[in-house]
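Here is one chain, start to finish.
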Amino acid sequence: MRYELLEEVNRLRIEYEGPPLDASALGILQLQLQEIVDKVATELLARDRLLDPRDPRSRRRGVYGRSEERVVKIKVEQIQSGSLFQEVSFWVQSVLADPDMRSVLLGVASNIIYAISSSGVRGITRRIPIPRDLLPQRQSDFDVGANVRAIVQALSASGENHKARLRLIHRRGDETLEVELQID
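Its structure:
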């Protein structure tokens, strides 16, 4: 399946500060982040009736779901070792890259920040207010709590009882949206 870069959506920056991560924790972070993207993108498209709920792409899959069924996938554009720093870009299936789909998906990164910050998971210590025009059309949960919990558990198990912090940052124009997870 071919994908096209959503050039209009700035990269999502992910920063981790804490003890070195083991490969398992890093893998869980990446897989759960893709699952969050899947949930947010399909919900946004379903709300605007651009994705039929019977479409296989709109069904919830486990984190090991087939990548060719994804509407939007993330690609790691830059990664640095040590305390993790990475930037991911968003790619949409070429067959779905019409102007209506692209316009709805412009808010995917902002809605990822919103979904994580409103997930109800303990450890979210900072939530930057999100302007009304960037909020989802309806105030409903994207149901990413289990994914955020899996990330926090993996990072805390990897850290050997040290404190750590995970931040997701998205810049859109002059505004910066950020959510921070404290791992104790």
